[in-house]
Design goal:
The chain is of the alpha/beta class and about 300 residues long. It has two domains: about 5-130 and about 290-305, Rossmann fold, CATH 3.40.50; about 130-285, Rossmann fold (3-Layer(aba) Sandwich). Helix content is about 45%, strand content about 15%. It contains twelve helices and nine strands. The chain has helices at about 10-30, 55-65, 85-90, 105-115, 130-140, 160-170, 185-200, 210-215, 235-240, 250, 275-280, 280-310; strands at about 40-45, 70-75, 100, 120, 150-155, 175-180, 205, 220, 260. Helix 2 (about 55-65) links the parallel strand 1 (about 40-45) and strand 2. Helix 2 (about 55-65) crosses helix 12. The longest helix has 29 residues, at about 280-310. The radius of gyration is 19 Å and the shape is globular. It binds phosphoric acid mono(formamide)ester and norvaline (NVA). Phosphoric acid mono(formamide)ester (CP) binds near residues 51, 132 and 264.
Amino acid sequence: MRHFLTLRDFTAEELLEMIELARTIKAQTKQHEYIPYLEHQTLGMIFEKSSTRTRVSFETGIYQLGGVGLFLSSTDLQLGRGEPLRDTARVISRMLDMVMIRTYKQSDLEEFARYSRVPVINGLTDSYHPVQLMTDYLTMLEFGKGDNPVCAYIGDGNNMAHSWLYLAAVLGFELRIATPEAYQCDPQIVSEAQKLAETSGAKLLFGDDPVAAVSGCDVVTTDTWVSMGQEEEKAQRIKDFEGYQVNEPLMAHAKDDAIFLHCLPAYRGYEVSEETFEKHADVIFTEAENRLHAQKGIMVWLDQQRNTSE
Ligand code: CP
Ligand code: NVA
C-alpha cells in the first residue's frame, strides 16, 4: 500500500501514470461519463487549516468516482480535545478507504500514515503541497509546457517552493528559485532535491534575483508571502518581499508565450499584480479546476496499487 506524502516518494514513471489517469478521467468527466473507479469508497478529509479548493475538489472528486467524502474538521474531532493522532488514525482507517489530511507539521502527517491501514494523501503541510504540484504539471501539459520546461518560482521558500523542487527533481526539468535571503527553501529539502536531480538531470538554481530567474523561462509562478499560520508576521513579510512581485515588467523577461501559474488564493498587489493575474486568468482558473482532475488520478492510482498488493 502506498501513501501520497511527498513527491520524492515516487519515480517519474509513477507520477506520470497518475497524470495519465487524471487526463483520461478528465476527458471522461467532460463527456459526462462518470466511471465508478472508487465505488462505495469513503474518503475522510481532515482539515486543521482553512481551504476552498482542496475541500471542494476532493469532496467532488470522490463523489464523481462513485464514493463519498467526509469532511472532518480537527476542531470537531476528538483530536481537537487531545485524542492522540495515532489513535485517530487507527480508528478511522478501519472505517474509511482513504484519508486526506491538511495539517501543520509534516511529521504529524507521517505519523498518521504509519498508523493508518489505508492510503493517506497530503492535502498540504507547512513543508509541502504535492497535490497542487501534480495539478500544476497537468496544467503545464495542457498548455504545451510539459516538454523540458524552464520554470521560475519567485517569492517565499515555502511549502509550494519545496514541492516545485521535488517535482523538478523527479521529472528532471530546470527550476530557478528566487527568494529574499531570509526566506530561502529549507536546506535539508534542497539537498534531498539535489540528490534526486543528480539522477534525473534536473537543474535546480537558487538566487535572490527575480529577473535572472525569469529570464527566458517558459513558466513563472509564485505563492502568497503569508502562508497559513504566519498571519502575525504579515507586516514584516510584506516589507521583506518588496521587489518580489510578479508583474508585467518582470514577466517581460520571460519568453513571450510564458504562462503564469498560481495555486491560489492570490493576493493581488502583493505577490502578483492585478494586471498579470488577470492576463493569465485562463491558465490560473484551469489550474484551479485541475485540482479536481489531478486528485482523481492520484486517488485511483493509490487504489490500484492497493489492489495489486493485496
Ligand atoms: N491551492 C489550495 O490548496 O487552495 P485551498 O487552500 O483553498 O485549498
Ligand atoms: N503557501 C500557502 C499555500 C496555500 C494553498 C499556505 O500554506 O498557506
